[in-house]
Specification:
The chain contains eight helices and two strands, in the order αββααααααα. By secondary structure, it is mainly α. The chain has one domain. The protein has a two-stranded antiparallel ribbon with strand order 1-2. Strand 1 and strand 2 form a beta hairpin. It starts with a helix and ends in a 15-residue tail after the last helix.
Length: about 280
């Protein structure tokens, strides 16, 4: 197939498009079309259920180490960031999609994101508005560097080590941002109110997906980021004291139950490498 034909068969859309001359990570079919060799899972209902569970686990697990064990935000951040580095290196070096490895890296980003956000907001004194603004800037810087380096921020293009590094860096920053947003929002809405707020926002994005032609990759990242404050408020709702509006459940027990739930979901829901929203306009 010619380069022109390849470009014609791939999604367009500026920042969210695969460039026409980028056929790395593609394998040709017998009919002349192309398959993306992906190491990320197909985005379906199971993906979102597991993602929300992972973000909730990040909140309860991060707080368990930094608060319940009184390790502190800085040391906990160093521990979880080290864990994230080990997992993400294994993920990038892997030759194909491994469901448990992929979701382990996601959990690593949520654990590190929880303590990183708490360290910035509380220990460094940025506060929730300052911390959220700083983390939003980091997300935008990561996306801009990704675009300039790879030519696109499309999540259909996670087929090279460079693209995968930017993918995980953006996820790490977005999960950290989500923690700060969740904590900031819950101050005004309460934990229960925060859960319903972020569920509502995700429902709005789902409506935009089904009833508009807004770029699917853009909607994906919006929903992906919002699952993090949803998980943060759900985690706090489960474990914070009754006086603060929580259910006062053990952080360790909650983390264990959520981890088991994730494993069951990974085993039950189909886990196969697939496309993200944006390819041919579908999820």
């Amino acid at each position: 197939m010619s380069e022109q034909a390849v470009g014609a068969s791939l999604p367009a859309g500026g920042w969210f498009a695969r460039s026409a001359d980028d056929v790395s990570g593609l394998s040709a079919r017998n009919d002349g079309s192309w398959d993306v060799i992906s190491k990320v899972p197909e985005v379906a209902l199971g993906f979102w259920i597991i993602k929300i569970a992972a973000t909730t686990l990040g909140e309860t697990g991060g707080d368990a180490l930094s608060m319940s064990l009184n390790v502190g935000y800085l040391v906990s951040t160093l521990i979880f960031f080290g864990l994230f580095l080990v997992l993400v290196i294994a993920q990038i070096k892997a030759k194909r999609f491994h469901p448990f490895l992929y979701w382990a890296v996601i959990v690593g980003t949520t654990l590190a994101g929880t303590t990183m956000a708490d360290f910035a907001d509380r220990s460094l004194g940025f506060g929730y508005p300052g911390g959220s603004t700083l983390l939003l800037l980091l997300v935008l810087i990561s996306l801009t560097a990704w675009k300039l380096s790879v030519g696109t921020v499309s999540v259909n293009n996670i087929t090279t080590p460079k693209a995968e590094m930017f993918y995980w860096l953006t996820i790490l920053f977005s999960n950290t941002l989500g923690t700060a947003l969740g904590d900031w929002t819950s101050e005004g809405t309460g934990f229960g109110g925060g859960v319903f707020l972020f569920l509502g926002l995700i429902a709005v994005i789902a409506g935009l997906y089904f009833f508009t032609k807004i770029n699917r990759t853009l909607l994906f990242w919006m929903a992906f980021i919002l699952t993090r404050p949803l998980g943060a408020t759900m985690g706090d709702l489960l474990t914070k004291p009754h006086a603060d509006g929580g259910l006062n459940l053990s952080r360790f027990v909650s983390s264990g139950v959520i981890a088991v739930f994730m494993v069951v979901c990974i085993l039950l829901f189909p886990q196969r490498a697939g496309t993200h929203p944006g390819q041919d306009g579908r999820a």
